Amino acid sequence: MTGRRMILVVDDDIDFSESLRRLLTLENYDVLCADSVTSALKAVEQNDIAVALVDIRLGSGGDGLDVVRELRRIDPDLMCLMITAFVSVDTAIQALQAGAYDYLSKPFHIEEVLSTLDRCFERKQLLTARKLSEERLRQKQHMEVIGQLASGVAHDFNNILAVLLSNLRLLEERIGRAHPEFSELVSEAITATLTGGELTSRLLNLGARPGDRDHPIDLVEMLQGFLVMLRRTLGQGWDARLEVPDRIDPVTVSRGLLETSLLNLALNARDAMESGGTVTITARNHDAGSAPAANGTGDAAGRFVAISVADTGTGMSGDVRARAFEPLFTTKKRGDGNGLGLTMVENFAHTHGGWIGIETAPGQGTTMTLFLPSGVQAGPV
After folding, report:
1. Which CATH superfamily is domain 6-108 in?
2. Digit-coded pLDDT (tens) for 276-297
């Protein structure tokens, strides 16, 4: 189970709470204690709590069932366990109806608590995996709709461009030598029209990713084209810069998925620079030798291509960096991010035999590097 295992114990018996906290801490859980409804709600609002153990009878003016309802109202994904010394069928039904996952009967053995907590975290892992799958399916369906819409728009737009280009070519022939002062203007108009056609093609390639297959990709050509699209995507106040050698190894991947992954990284880089800045994309060949790969992907031996996306933004704290690839984790405000972008980029890298690395520090910006197996596995770099 990835991520922090934080637990909240809600009980007005301070001695009991403290004793349980010490025992669970020895089992590598992070444990907070609350002795009232107010302190419990505050703890959930301010911390990433996974499981709450709530006494069904709080002597401080609160009912445990009401506490569970309020806690789950704040965080619907919170797993709640009722603690009760008065076990009955009615009590169990009331606990489940309030939103509790299970209940523990006092007095209990620590083994019983640990077993129940294991089930809670296993269930949370399954729920997270299901949410990730559902979000991926929604994104796939969304991209399919966008692709269909883009195809229709692109067809009409290309017809317009064809008429413009045809007339501009004719105009170029007619005024060429007779009016040389206009030739440059016509030439620029033709170039702009051709660029419009190229941008339409790139948009269609990006939107068609659900059916995209792996092919050898010329990264110099692909990244140059991607840069043009990215500059128009970032918005006013941000720019993009590309640094690649004249020759770099090809990679065999889905072009659409690679562009989507780089776009995710680039938009994260932009969002980290709230006052504007430059997103820098670099690429290089990388000989991994026999060094262990990042993020627990095992041994990475052989030849790779490293594509980096760097910003000069706020950087990440140690805690944020540790959770960067955790599904549904985001530091953005609600509505600005779903916490799945980096998860999908990491999944793309792992699927193709690579990995993604992070270089960051608070106040010093972030560099995300995507390592993909080279299409050339022999010879000097």
Report:
1. Response regulator (3.40.50.2300)
2. 899 999 999 998 764 444 444 4
